[in-house]
Amino acid sequence: MASSPTIVWLRDDLRVADNPALTAAVERGAPVVVVYLLDEQSPGARPLGGASRWWLHHSLASLGRGLEAIGATLTLRRGVASVVIPGLAAETGAGAVYWNRRYGALRDVDAALKSRLSADGLEVTSFSASLLFEPWAITTGAGDPYRVFTPFWRACLAAGEPRSPLGAPTSMTGVVVDSDELDSWKLLPTRPDWAEGLRAAWTPGEHGAHDRLEHFVNNGLALYHRRDEPSLEATSRLSPHLRFGEISPHQVWSRVQDGLTPEAAANRAKFLSEIGWREFSYSILFHLPQLATTNVRRDFDAFPWQAPDPAALAAWQQGRTGIPIVDAGMRQLWTSGWMHNRVRMIVASLLTKNMLVDWRVGEAWFWDTLVDADEASNAASWQWVAGSGADAAPYFRVFNPVLQAERFDPDRTYIQQWVPDVDEPEYPAPIVDLAHSRLAALAAYEAVKAAKAVSR
Question: Annotated catalytic, 359?
């Protein structure tokens, strides 16, 4: 049994149960230093948006309470990982550093730290915690990453049952070291405090995540075949909890295996395939860490995006486009930090295709305003809609928001909820002509195809 402390460095895994790094630290038998590092400066780090910062504050507060209940303390530090983590190891006399893996650009930071700490004589171990399947394990017969979702997910399902989730440690010996005060990070909005809608809609933290899962299993999963109807509570809304690791995909997978009604069981495979889309997005990110800034399909580098008109872009951001289903989604986002997935596709199509605004502009807005702004899923989904991504929607598929609303919100329940002024005289006229702008988008795409053909 080791005596020198074990550091558990938490990142996007803010939970006690099914946390492999934390479980391994307890099993090592030494006192444990649990640290969360707010690192917005390391190479590849992307500062959190406003909605994510709000969520992080409450998630860390919840995690601190969960750790205290089993004898540990959450240490908060802020700075560059390459400085803070070795410094904490020296400060505590640690003999081991454990963490759960990341898959984007920051994995280079982790690899460098692993080499440095190991050279200093520390045991350094990383664990699989946030994905069902490691990205390097799911490849084509030629050993290449999949570019199409359906064969990717088929390969995942053929790879074997995901491991069972780990239980939460019942007790551990924590180490108290100097820690920042959470309030000193100023993650919460104050002037103005725009988070009232977020507080009403969400309960960040591990308990909130499991309550959300149980509510979905008992109420929403039986309706999941109607998940495209935004007025229904037919989706899980687990995305922010998964994004911050308050619940793991293994826990979600395990929960829906048994104890379901026949109606819920009939929708299980489709729901799990949406967990699979998250896995697919992380596979893309693993092979293209700059997913938020770089086209997966490089021929889109020549696409003639238009400089956004400031007034039109503001109308899109604020839900004043004059297109009711779009405005409903953007107002839902602004109020609650979340948007129904079908509507996400509709608003993204309007921006990238009818308005010809670069998908990166929309991705950045979602990054700032979504509580589930995820480095893989957010960028991959924007590229899917724009046509530049892996397994992308064909560029000639331009969502008609009027027809989409008629199909998925025929009684206008969703629209009336979020756009109560839709029938008022002051409601704005549409900022784009849908038919004309669709033709312009297709013409732009044809020009890219022609340029690609000439370059061959």
Answer: yes
